[in-house]
Design brief:
The radius of gyration is 15 Å and the shape is globular. It has one domain: 3-layer Sandwich (Rieske Iron-sulfur Protein). It has 127 residues and is mainly β. It is 5% helix and 32% strand. Strand 9 and strand 10 form a beta hairpin.
């Protein structure tokens, strides 16, 4: 049986927006709210170049990555065709207006994934 952790109230998430949930280990989780008040949670990392999905625009049941406008499905975390790739999703429950995430997933799911480093920081020192 899952243990659930209360994150916030549904009204604390902007309509067609998101709220970030920090974890002690691993990248943040983005919790999204649609126009119909459906709530979804994904790792806050686009599968393309690692953009912060929490800063994207929610439309329908998808979010557009702010870096390159990839459309990521909120139900499955997968990029819409013609793009490819998925970001991990997290189980969400809404009870009496409160949003809950699975405590075990918060602690263990996708904790090994990192955000790609871009630009000059990627260069290695010349010997």
């Amino acid at each position: 049986m899952s243990e659930w952790k209360v994150i916030c109230r549904v009204e604390d998430i902007p309509v067609l927006g998101s709220r970030r949930v920090a974890r002690p280990v691993g990248l943040d989780i983005a919790v999204f709210r649609t126009a119909e008040d459906k709530v979804f949670a994904l790792l806050d990392r686009c599968p393309h170049k690692g953009g912060p999905l929490s800063q994207g625009i929610v439309h329908g049941e998808a979010v557009a990555c702010p870096l390159h406008n990839w459309n990521i499905g909120l139900r499955d975390g997968c990029a819409r065709t013609p793009d490819e790739g998925c970001t991990p999703r997290f189980a969400v429950e809404v009870r009496e207006g409160a949003v809950y995430l699975d405590a075990n997933e918060l602690a263990t799911h996708a904790t090994d994934l990192t955000r790609p480093v871009a630009g000059p920081a990627r260069r290695t020192a010349l010997a």
